[in-house]
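[scheduler] slot 2 assigned
[scheduler] job type: sequence-to-structure, two independent chains
[scheduler] chain ordering preserved from manifest
[runner] begin chain α
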Amino acid sequence: MGAIAYLKEQCSWSRGVREVLRKYGVEYEEKPLHISENFQEMVDKTGQENQPCVLLAENLILADVSGEELEQYLIENGYDCVSGDEGVPVDSTCTDEEHECQNAVQDRKTKRETTKGSHNSGIGPHIPIKDTTFYGSR
C-alpha cells in the first residue's frame, strides 16, 4: 500500500508535506481536503480535524504533521533522501493570502450546503418521500 496524504490545496503545511514525500521518494495518493468525503475520511481515521495527515501504513497515520515532523519520522525509520532540494520550507505556517483563499473556499462550501436545506426551515436536508397510499404501489 502506498501512502495517503490528506492535504489542502493552498497551505504551507501541506506544501511542506508534499515536498518531504517527494524528497524521500514516497509514493502517495493525495486526497484534497476541499472534497468533503476526503475530509470526513481523514476525521474518521484520525479522530480529529487538523491537517495535514499522512497514512503511511494500514495502522500508522501521522496526524496534524508538519513537513519537518514527517521528515524526522522518515529519517528515524530508515528512509533515504532521493532528491536534495533544501530550499523548500517544510515547517511554515500559511500566509495570510493562503488563509483567505481557504476561508473563501470554506465559505462557498458552507453556503452551498446551507442553501441545499434552506427550503426545509434549516432542519436539515429535504428528504423526498414517495406517498403510495393514493395511487397504490405503481
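[runner] end chain α
[runner] begin chain β
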Amino acid sequence: MHAFIPEPKRIPFFLKFGIWFSEKITGKTMLPARILAWYPKAAIGSGIMEALVAHEDGAMNKRILKLIRMTASYAAACPFCIDMNSHEHRQHGITDEEAASLRGDYESVNTFSEREKLAIAYSRLISQTPLKFHPDLVEKVKTAFTEREFVILASTAAQVNYWARLIQALGIPPAGFGE
C-alpha cells in the first residue's frame, strides 16, 4: 500500500532535521513528514503543532491523554492514527479490554473513571461531523475538568483530527507501529 503521491526526491535541508528527529523518536519512517516536504510551510506548521503536543499536565496524565488520542483516532477512522496512537497502550496503563472498548461501548467498562469516560465522550464528539455539542455533556466536562484541562482535552482531540484528515487525504498507510 502506497500514499497517493511519493515523497519528493529532494527534501529541503531545513526540513531534514525535523524528519530525522521524528523518525529517531518513533523508530519508523514518518511518511507524513516526508510528503509534507512538498509544501514546506505545511511541514513547518505541522511540525510545530506536533512539537507542542501535551504529554502530561497535572491531572491530564499520560493515560488520559492516550485515551483521548486513541478515541479520536478510532472516531476519525484513520488507520495510520489508530496504529500510532494505540501503540504501547499498555505502557500507559490501558488494558486490552479498555483499548478495544474505545471502538464501541466504553460505558460498560468499569475500570474507566468518570473523568476518563467524559474525556472519551467529548473526544468522540470533537471527532464527529457535523459537530454537535449537547449542553449537558459540556456542563459535565466543565465540572470535571479545569479550564486548562478542558483546553488540553479539546486541543489534543482536535490535533488527532487534523492529522487524521491530512494523513487520509494524502493516502498514507499505517507505519507499522503495532508490529
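[runner] end chain β
[qc] chain β: The domain at 62-168 is CATH 1.20.1290.10 (AhpD-like).
[scheduler] slot 2 released
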